[in-house]
């Protein structure tokens, strides 16, 4: 006589579906809060960068006005461009680290239940 495999009851299937749905809703709420916090922190970082850049540009204009020879002007231009590239590179690195951190935390949260 062959045995038929035991099938889970409809109640067990429904309970499993409800647990999965609850986890999904919880994950969605967590993701929303995480992304909102990331947008807030990124916005603050970019506002601070813009403020610092405006201050740096105002100082650069004062230095430009003080240039009296072509040599001092070319020296100023080289310094200003070098500083601008370095500041923008540092800011891009900072924003990339912030984004990578959010991605790592999200990946760990989304896959952590399997461990």
Describe the secondary structure blueprint for this structure:
Layout: H1 10-65, H2 70-111
Concise synopsis of the structure shown:
With 115 residues, the chain is mainly α. It has a domain of 46 residues.
Q: What separation lies between the terminal Cα atoms?
A: 40 Å
N-to-C order of helices and strands = HH
Q: Tell me, what's the shape?
A: rod-shaped
* Unreliable spans: none
Overall number of strands: 0
Fraction in beta strands: under 5%
Number of separate helices: 2
Measured on Cα atoms, how large is the radius of gyration?
Answer: 28 Å
Q: Determine the structural class based on helices, strands and strand pairing.
A: mainly alpha
Largest sheet: none
Mean pLDDT: 86
- Helicity range of the residues? over 70%
Can you walk me through this structure?
There is one protein chain. The protein has a domain at 69-114. The chain has helices at 10-65, 70-111. The mean pLDDT is 86. The longest helix has 56 residues, at 10-65. α1 (10-65) runs antiparallel to α2 (70-111). Helices cover 85% and strands 0% of the residues. By secondary structure, the protein is mainly α. It is rod-shaped and about 95 Å long. This is Phasin domain-containing protein. Residues 28-99 form the Phasin domain. InterPro entries: Phasin.
């Amino acid at each position: 006589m062959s045995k038929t495999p035991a099938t889970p009851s409809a109640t067990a299937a429904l309970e499993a579906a409800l647990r999965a749905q609850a986890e999904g809703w919880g994950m969605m709420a967590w993701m929303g809060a995480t992304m909102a916090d990331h947008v807030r922190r990124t916005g603050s970082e970019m506002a601070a960068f813009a403020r610092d850049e405006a201050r740096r540009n105002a100082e650069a204009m004062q230095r430009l006005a003080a240039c009296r020879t072509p040599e001092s002007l070319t020296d100023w231009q080289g310094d200003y461009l070098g500083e601008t590239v370095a500041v923008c590179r540092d800011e891009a690195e900072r924003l990339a680290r912030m984004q990578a951190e959010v991605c790592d935390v999200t990946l760990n949260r989304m896959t952590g239940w399997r461990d």
